[in-house]
Every structure is written in C-alpha cells, then in structure tokens.
Amino acid sequence: MAHSAQLNILEQNCPIQVEHDRKRRQFTVKLNGCHDRAVLLYEYVGKRIVDLQHTEVPDAYRGRGIAKHLAKAALDFVVEEDLKAHLTCWYIQKYVKENPLPQYLERLQP
Fold first, then answer.
1. Pick from 22, 13, 28, 29: which is nearest to 50 by CA?
2. Tally of structural domains, the chain
3. Which one of 21, 31, 78, 93 is at 20 to 30 Å from 2 when CA atoms are compared?
4. How confident is the model at residue 11 (pLDDT cuts 50, 70, 90)?
C-alpha cells in the first residue's frame, strides 16, 4: 500500500507529494501529472538495515528541491521504523551533511 506525505513546498501551485511504495522499496514524486516521476530507491541489506541506493530526478525538474523531499522522506522512514541506514547514494550523503540532525546521524551505518 502506498503512503502519501504532503509537504509544504509548492511546485507550480501543486504541493509536492512523496509516496512510499514499500513493496517496490521506493519513494516517488509524480511530476507533470503522471507522465514523469522522481524516485529514490532502497533495499534491505539486513534485518533492520536499509541501503538508500539511488535518487533520480528528471533533468527538466532538477534544481527545484524535489530530491530533498525524497531524501527527507526516506530518512524519516528510517527513523520512524527504528532502522539503520547505509548511504550508497551520493545525494543522500550530501543531504545528511547539510542536515546533520541527530536522529539521522545516529542511524547511519559505516
């Protein structure tokens, strides 16, 4: 079942909605209706460890803060589910450096 979280940043007068598809292990933001989407992929690499592997935003939508919302949603998921995270994705590594919240830092795997 997909879970939606409404965020307060507006994209062409429409709020950015991050959807979490647990079955497919991904967070997505639908762009331009349903035609394009931004995605953050993850995998379980242990019983309570997720690897945040890859974030992708289509070129036409880059620089608008969409990846930040995906990263925040994924890290909030890690915190809420009491998981540990390995950060393969360079963008999420950068996000954590720019947002060094204790609840994120204590969940990181080397």
1. 22
2. 1
3. 93
4. very low
Does residue 3 belong to any structural domain of this protein? no
Q: How far apart are CA 47 and CA 14, in angstroms?
A: 37
Answer for the pair 5, 17: CB distance below 8 angstroms, yes or no. yes
36 DSSP β-pair partners: 31
3-state secondary structure of 6: strand
Q: Tokens standing for 110?
A: 């080397």
Which domain, by its residues, includes 35? Answer: 18-106
Question: Are the beta carbons of 108 and 85 closer than 8 angstroms?
Answer: yes
User: What's the pLDDT tens digit per position in 69-90?
Assistant: 999 999 999 999 999 999 999 9
Count of Cβ atoms closer than 10 Å to residue 30 Cβ: 15
